[in-house]
TrEMBL record:
Originating species: Zonotrichia albicollis
Gene Ontology biological-process annotations: cellular response to calcium ion
Keywords: Calcium, Metal-binding, Repeat
Gene Ontology terms for molecular function: calcium-dependent phospholipid binding; metal ion binding
Entry keyword annotation includes Repeat: yes
Calcium found in the keyword field: yes
Entry's family note: Belongs to the copine family.
Stated name of the protein: Copine family member 9
Annotated VWFA domain residues: 259-460
Chain ranges of the C2 domain: 90-215
Gene behind this protein: CPNE9
Native organism taxonomy: Eukaryota, Metazoa, Chordata, Craniata, Vertebrata
């Protein structure tokens, strides 16, 4: 929109390139004589919530002055993270409008069950050991295997277990595309005997939801050789159902906001911030472990928060003016509005707090978890989802209360990320991260696993490459967030809202 006009007697003829990780991966078509082109070509990218995926768009790139491309004027370039595209708001002025998939776009999952009757006998000393092989037809007339059932031993009348398969895998979105099913007799040596085949389509299968559908299993060779050949048995569709599974992107594109809150450990075990041995110490050449962890996670997740305002708290310190111990004091010293502008604003307030509070103790997590849980409980319709980042150095002092807080929060639209910095042992943190055993408190079990813990020391790169280390840290701590958000939506039967048209 509103591109520069570089042609003397007409308007510009814009074309563009997309680049990723320093290399070009696609080029749009050229559209003549316009300053507001609508490019048609689509680019397909793999999307990972937990990674910073940077894109660059060139309008007639500067290197295109060559015999291959012809002489072309450079219009400009735009830099954007893929996460910003997913959660973007439309802008003003000269812009590059990045259009993306309409939302919501669920992935339909089919569950079906089949049985067979009077299949041909293939085993000399027994009956048959039948199984089914499903094939999706391709545009070029070939077939691709998309599913195999289990083998049912020694029967001519097998009943196979129900199975699920994505609709996309079955027919690639074309409901009338042929689905071929082969029936085989299993042999131990792998030379399975062909019993017969039949064909259908997704549309035909879906029509059979309310009634049994019987397919004749035909063997073309037998049909040619035997005049009285009828079939090699029948296969019956016993049940067929379809469910929609929405993706993380569907909810973000549908308007779900990720609200990012930070809680930082200000207990005395971190060491005096002015001393190089302190975990809070920031040299002129390097950020502290706390600041690095905050930037690594925050710079990715901030792309999904429209107002870029992040509540930020400290815990375990004596705070001015009265020197009382607090476990949820605002880093910006504003009790009424603890939000900071962007991750840089959080970092600025964090560094300012280090100069004004007295590091003390103990290490209590429950107050700040309950604080965020209270906010999350106010909006539970799927339009808001909260992510709390806790950065800490030590052993939890209020383990029982923290367990209780997490179990309560597990029923809310909320996730908790814990980054442990320093050399301490973090067995308690591992217990809170319910990957192996579901967290419980006073006989109550957490409804969902909402905690992800990682020790910062595992991501310190020996080469001193902070950028690489922090990218690995962010990837691991954020990897579970999409699934945790989806688990909340699914348990509440919340579907994504339809995004505003582009």
């Amino acid at each position: 929109r509103n591109l520069l006009d570089l042609d003397t007697f007409s308007k510009s003829d814009p074309g563009g390139w997309q680049s990723r990780a320093g290399s070009m991966f696609g080029r749009t078509e050229v559209i003549d004589n316009t300053l507001n082109p609508d490019f048609v070509r689509k680019f397909v990218l793999d999307y990972y919530f937990e990674e910073k995926q940077n894109l660059r768009d060139w309008g007639n790139p500067p290197w295109s002055h060559s015999a291959f491309f012809g002489a072309q004027d450079f219009l400009g370039q735009a830099f954007v993270a893929l996460g910003e595209v997913i959660g973007s708001q439309r802008g003003q002025g000269p812009t590059l409008c990045l259009h993306h998939l309409d939302s919501p776009c669920p992935q339909d999952i089919v569950t079906m069950q089949l049985c067979a009757n009077k299949l041909d006998k293939k085993d000399f000393f027994g009956k048959s050991d039948p199984f089914l092989v499903f094939y999706r037809s391709n545009e070029d007339g070939t077939f691709t295997i998309c599913h195999k059932t289990e083998v049912v031993k020694n029967t001519l009348n097998p009943v196979w277990q129900p199975f699920t398969i994505p609709v996309r895998a079955l027919c690639n979105g074309d409901y009338d595309r042929t689905v071929k099913i082969d029936v085989y007799d299993w042999d131990r040596d792998g030379s399975h005997d062909f019993i017969g085949e039949f064909a259908t389509s997704y549309r035909e299968l879906s029509r059979a939801q309310s009634q049994f559908t019987v397919y004749e299993v035909l063997n073309p060779r037998k049909k040619c050789k035997k005049k009285k050949y009828v079939n090699s048995g029948t296969v019956t569709l016993l049940s067929f159902s379809v469910e929609s599974e929405f993706t993380f992107v569907d909810y973000i594109r549908g308007g779900t906001q990720l609200n990012f809150t930070v809680a930082i450990d200000f207990t005395a075990s971190n060491g005096l911030p002015s001393q190089p041995t302190s975990l809070h110490y920031a040299s002129p050449y390097q950020l502290s472990a706390y600041a690095l962890a905050l930037k690594a996670v925050g710079e990715i997740i901030q792309d999904y928060d429209s107002d870029k305002l992040f509540p930020a708290y400290g815990f375990g310190a004596k705070v001015p003016p009265d020197g009382k111990i607090s476990h949820q004091f605002p880093l910006n010293n504003n009790v009424e509005n603890p939000s900071c502008a962007g991750i840089e604003g959080v970092l600025e307030s964090y560094l300012q707090s280090l100069r004004t509070v007295q590091l003390y103790g103990p290490t209590n997590f429950a107050p700040v978890i309950n604080q965020v849980a209270g906010i999350a409980a106010q909006v539970t319709d799927g339009s808001q989802y909260h992510v709390l980042l806790i950065i800490t150095d030590g052993v939890i002092s209020d383990m029982l209360q923290t367990k209780e807080a997490i179990v309560t929060a597990s029923s809310l639209p909320m996730s908790i990320i814990i980054v442990g910095v320093g050399p301490a042992e973090f067995e308690a943190m591992e217990e809170l991260d319910g990957d192996e055993v579901r967290l419980s408190s006073r006989g109550r079990y957490a409804e969902r696993d909402i905690v992800q813990f990682v020790p910062f020391r595992d991501y310190v790169d020996d080469s001193g490459n902070q950028v690489l280390s922090m990218a690995r840290l962010a990837k691991d701590v954020l990897a579970e967030i999409p699934e945790q958000l989806l688990s909340y939506m699914k348990t509440r039967d919340i579907k994504p809202r339809r995004a505003d048209p582009e």
